[in-house]
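Researcher: Next sequence.
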Amino acid sequence: MILPETTLFPRMTLPLRIFEPRYRRMLKDVLEGGRVFAVALRDPERKAESPMPIGCLGLVSTAVEQPDGTSLLTLQGLARVEFLGPVRLKPYRVEAIRGIFSPPGDSPQTDALARKVRALVRKRVKLGFDLGFPLPDDPAQAKQLQQMQDLANASFQQFGRQLAKVKSPEQLADLVASTLIGDPLARQFLLATPQIEERLRHLHQMLLASQFNTDDPTP
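Model: Next structure:
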């Protein structure tokens, strides 16, 4: 499935609504088979619908068909894959793939970078999540916005608690990248970086350069 502005990472979940006829057909075949398909970011530099070279294989963990024939599903990321070229294009795209596995990342440098990333994210979580909308004058709308803000803060705090339980530097990098990096091409760059130390270094630089940090982002 080729999607704009969407990147799936291993061990992360992606909610999807399947409505295009080709993808409805694909989902039917997937559910009758191994329940797996790959997600790729659409290559913005090509006019034809083409995937970026690296994507992620995902497992359909839940799928609910709606009365109108569309489906809501949750995809669980399994592994990075490289696309080797199309096997067929109709009724939906099928690509040959090769699994991409990260080399061991148990080094002092990797551990130090993981600590720096954790420190930056902890600072950001303490600040809370600001939706960025001005408070409307209408009391009913203001109440609704406040409820949305409270929900966003609760979700952000849950992310912080989830992050604290993550021990693997690789899983840490992918969780933070999928949650806090908003630019699709930046997320794609991190997905396409198999070396854990290099991925953490780039992620740390992105966090420092982004608006997700305090005025003094130094851990």
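Model: The chain has six helices and six strands. The mean pLDDT is 89.
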